[in-house]
Write a structure and sequence with these properties.
heterodimer, A: mainly alpha, 2 domains, globular, B: alpha/beta, Rossmann fold, six-stranded mixed sheet, 13 helices
Chain lengths: ~325, ~425
């Protein structure tokens, strides 16, 4: 008989793997990405941006690990997810160097310098986006960055504003048509954020596959809805306006795919509820009273910073816990 | 039917289909074959051998004397001649002083195996220990002290370890003995209720036990959700009574005593028939074995003999485990004796036994979501790697029951339970050293 393996228990493992989880995220994001590419006017530019972003993220990850003499982990697909998410957060008119700069910041600065997968304290894709937003505001949100969607009818394409920007400027009252357009993705916005319906389906896929829990996205979205229902734009909330807030901007992308990033969200069930609530409140505050039209990215980044504290104070009650005297 | 269970836990593939239809076969050593009886098959002080090489012994004759309260005597499982008294490798990995008997094939029984009057003393004299794997002396468990009011006796028939089917087959084929054993235990604690907790993947066992107990108002058969670690003592009590054993306390603190199927059957044999514990049922299974089986064997036969009786290996095994895949001990040699705590011999092929490489923790939180004790294994793992004992204690590392659910579920394949187990022992030793000063 050949030699027997001796190891500590348990001797069997589940079929789960990091690669499978990342693949699930990619599967969940794919429909919304494709819809985003098709529904935007600059489809080709958008498609190339997505491709460059993914390739750059994988490249930087491999490069860093090569230089740092670490085992190469690009096969876990996490860099692909980061690249995809980063591209989804970029406008369709992005110059092609922009996803490369963003990928560098996401992978090298936000992820690898802090220890690689699972060690980053903020969401790498959002960190990349925040860096680009600060460094190249014109390319990221300037007046020419966004145009109307392919099937959108607008009076003047040259002065087009995304739904959130026009709401910020005190645009016309929200109609059900606005909501339907936002839901289907027939509005302007970054490449991946516009098609709310497919993002929701992708999110449900991840929840069903138990890749993410319902807690962060559901609480996040519900908090924004209730906050907007109570406060609303122009001093008063209304139902249609609150619904509209859910389908425009990056809320669905952020709630299902960014705020749920494992490394930068709480591991405790109660902590995840707090994460969702905090993101919801901050997003609403920034949208209503902040300087930017959209608050999803910054709200998630700010909550990322609170995660160690949240985890610490929301540890589950242990089985048979004895109260300290 | 509503199934009871505990919070959290995992769902490994149970692998029981390999052997759950295999009726128990009696297997005996050939005349001339050696059987090895280790002097320590339990938690507590080892026994002292009371026989010498050359002496003839009979089945059930005491050959190892327990001198401490927390200890348990051992008996010859065959009749024959003592050949050696020497240290031998045991399934736990330790070299243990053992009595080695050459079987004469007669199986001549000792007339007086148990010299005691009261049931509890018979249980002690019969050498009964927790046969589920822990090996805690049963008479100690059944003597919880005057402060404890025992209200519930629970038979642990969950058999939540994947692959193992010995308890299942015992219930189906020898259920009456189990019920009689439980009744003996109930007599020790007047007013207590009996519960038989069985996982739902054994419907025939549940039906059989319900049939056998239908006229006993103080015994209930509880169908449990099939979930690991359902058969962990604390989790089983929680599922059946809803009570949580406080951290650091024993089941008696919430009025419960838990014993597994084989143990309760051994209690019956001791009290009703005056028989010492000399045999047990062992499952031999796994994808490397030709015909997975359940054997009724005398203690002391080697694992190798049992595997041979199950048809041998289909292909070279990569791993042979004493017990189940979640908490069993991996062996480096199959020439070890069956002991009182041998519930199964699991032989896995290379494919089934593969240990995937560890990667970074991705903080997915699955270990937190599934830990039956409500711990945060990812932090206990990082505390361990950082050597931070204070943080390890603050994160309740001492409460870990080492069930392995965290390592099982971890998508990054981190050695969570493994590292926590090692550190828990080290930290507890340090705490004891401090307390001793």
């Amino acid at each position: 008989m050949n030699k027997l393996v001796v190891s500590s228990t348990p001797h069997i493992r589940s079929n789960d793997s990091v690669q499978r989880i990342m693949l699930d995220v990619i599967i969940a994001l794919a429909p919304a990405t494709v819809a985003g590419i098709v529904l935007h006017n600059h489809s080709l530019n958008a498609a190339i941006t997505v491709a460059i972003s993914i390739i750059a993220c994988v490249f930087f990850e491999a490069l860093f690990q090569k230089i740092a003499k670490q085992p190469c982990t690009i096969s876990d697909l996490s860099a692909v997810v980061t690249g995809l998410l980063l591209a989804m957060n970029l406008p369709e008119t992005s110059p092609f160097w922009m996803p490369i700069v963003g990928a560098f910041f996401s992978i090298i600065v936000a992820k690898q310098l802090f220890g690689g997968l699972g060690q980053n304290f903020i969401n790498p894709a959002l960190a990349g986006r925040a860096f680009l937003l600060a460094a190249y505001p014109t390319n990221m949100t300037g007046s020419s960055a966004f145009g109307p969607a392919r099937f959108q009818t607008v009076a003047d394409a040259a002065t087009y504003a995304t739904p959130l920007a026009s709401l910020k400027e005190g645009g016309a009252a929200v109609t059900t048509t606005d909501i339907v357009n936002g839901f289907l993705g027939n509005v302007g916005g970054t490449i991946g954020e516009t098609c709310a319906v497919l993002l929701i389906l992708g999110g449900i896929y991840l929840i069903v596959r138990k890749v993410i829990s319902w807690r962060i996205p559901v609480v996040y979205i519900a908090t924004v809805f209730i906050f907007m229902l109570i406060f609303g734009r122009n001093g008063a909330g209304d139902f249609l306006g609150a619904i509209n807030e859910l389908v425009v901007g990056g809320l669905m992308l952020g709630a299902f795919f960014m705020a749920t990033d494992y490394a930068s969200s709480p591991v405790t069930p109660v902590g995840q509820l707090i994460m969702g609530f905090g993101c919801g409140v901050l997003t609403s505050i920034i949208r209503l009273w902040g300087g930017y039209p959209e608050g999803v990215s910054y709200s998630i980044l700010l909550m990322n910073l609170c995660v160690p504290l949240i985890d610490r104070f929301t540890a589950p009650k242990i089985f048979g816990e004895v109260k300290k005297q | 039917m509503e199934l009871k269970t505990f919070r959290r836990g995992v769902h490994p593939h149970d692998g029981k289909e390999l052997s759950n239809k295999a009726a128990i076969k009696t297997l005996n050593p050939e005349p001339g074959e050696l059987v090895t009886i280790p002097m320590s098959q339990h938690i507590g002080a080892p026994c002292e051998p009371i026989v010498k090489p050359g002496e003839r012994v009979l089945v059930g004759q005491k050959i190892g004397e327990a001198k401490a309260f927390v200890s348990s005597p051992v008996h010859a499982s065959v009749s024959g001649t003592v050949k050696f008294v020497k240290p031998v490798l045991t399934p736990g990995g330790a070299m243990v002083n053992s009595v080695i008997i050459e079987n004469d094939g007669e199986f001549e029984e000792a007339p007086e195996q148990i010299d005691a009057e009261k049931a509890i003393d018979k249980i002690k004299a019969a050498g009964i220990v927790g046969m589920g794997g822990a090996g805690f002396p049963t008479h100690v468990k059944l003597s919880p002290g005057p402060d404890s009011k025992i209200t519930d006796i629970i038979v642990n028939a969950a058999e939540c370890e994947p692959y193992l089917t010995c308890d299942h087959r015992c219930m189906v084929e020898r259920g009456g003995e189990l019920v009689d054993g439980l009744k003996i235990m109930l007599k020790l604690f007047p007013g207590a209720k009996g519960h038989i907790g069985i996982e739902a993947n054994k419907p025939d066992a549940i039906a059989e036990m319900e049939k056998l107990t239908k006229d006993d108002s103080d015994i209930s058969v509880v169908a449990l959700k099939c979930k690991y670690p359902q058969g962990s003592e604390k989790q089983l009590i929680s599922a059946i009574t809803g009570r949580e054993v406080p951290s650091g306390a024993l089941p008696a603190a919430v009025g419960c005593i838990v014993d597994n199927v084989a143990t309760v059957m051994a209690i019956r044999a001791a009290v009703s028939d005056g028989k010492a514990l000399t045999r047990r049922v062992v499952t031999v299974t796994g994808d490397a074995v030709v015909s997975p089986s359940n054997f009724d064997v005398p203690l002391g036969m080697t694992y190798a003999k049992l595997i041979e009786a199950a048809g041998g290996f289909k292909e070279d095994p990569a791993k042979v485990i004493s017990g189940g895949p979640m908490m069993g001990i991996a062996l480096h040699d199959t020439e070890v004796p069956v002991t009182k705590t041998t519930s199964g011999i699991l032989c896995l092929t290379k494919k089934a036994a593969e240990i995937p490489p560890e990667s970074n923790c991705i903080r997915c939180g699955k270990c937190v979501e599934h830990c039956p004790m409500g711990l945060m294994p990812l932090y206990l793992n990082s505390d361990t790697l950082a050597g931070d004992d204070d943080a390890f204690i603050a994160h309740h590392g001492i409460d870990c029951i080492e069930c392995g659910s965290c390592s099982f579920i971890c998508p990054a394949k981190r050695q969570l339970a493994q590292s926590i187990r090692v550190n828990k022992r080290a930290v507890m030793a340090k705490l004891r050293a401090k307390g001793g000063k």
